[in-house]
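Quick one: structure for this chain?
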Amino acid sequence: MRSKWVGAVVALTVFLGLERSALAQQDYPNRTVKVVIAFSPAGAIDILGRLIADRLSTMWGQQVIVENRPGAGGNIGAAAAAQAAPDGYTLHFGAQTLSTNPVLAPSTSFNPETSFEPIMLVGTALEIFSVAPSTPYKSVQDVIAAAKANPGKLNYASVGIGSSAHLATVLFMDVAGIKMQHVPYSQMSQAYADVFSGRTEIWFTTAGGSLPHINSGKVRALAVNGPSRTKLLPDVPTLAESGVNMKNESSWYGFFAPKGTPKPIIDKINRDLQTIIDRPDMREKELALGYRFIGGPPEKLRDYLKSETEKWEALEKKGAFN
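Got it. Here's what it folds into:
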């Protein structure tokens, strides 16, 4: 008799726990949500992440705050987000490093494909292949010709291994069949200073940081990466038009949640993110800041992460990062 009573109590406890969990999901969010970004403030991912967080705050009637956790090429922030409680109150706005770090800087504390629930592939960033204005290069083919004539002599800037500039240039070199020298900088300002002076010739960066310098003449834009030209630089051809078809942009951004986050919460965030990026004011920001919104279901981000990781693995096996 006592065992039946104990069993009934256990069953009731489990039932009540499930009920509370279901109610919590229906009421989500009912407190502050934190979005972890694994990079410093003011970069392309931080700007977009804060725009979206602000609009989620208004939509949900709850604070959505951004926490910057830079370090180890994005691994520190990603690991912190992956290890958070899977309740929807800690999210990760991740970047392309989730597909490159398993190849270039593996972490033992998390696995991008198994430690997260994908929510949405928000978009990519417009990338601009540019050169120092003091160089003689007026086209992408000029750069390729110079690099072929002097292998390893041209320098290209980035803010470190796995950064968007590093990845984009590695892919560019592989497609173009050339070799240039990587010059990693610890600060974006240092990289720009050397490009302005001509000490470093090549700068393959996202539009958000480089457009003001291109418009002022401090940097010369030769091509944009992506499926089409941009209204921001209508006279600048695409890389494909310039004879170097790199297909996807190297810089991408997506929302993730810790593994085990309930599907109803994942689905709600996905729907709300889609609503936000489809709004006219966000479409204006998309153009002005040089993003390309994508959206879609969580499975799209899962498949994209997998295919991007496989792409960088293949390049690493070819020795493209050496």
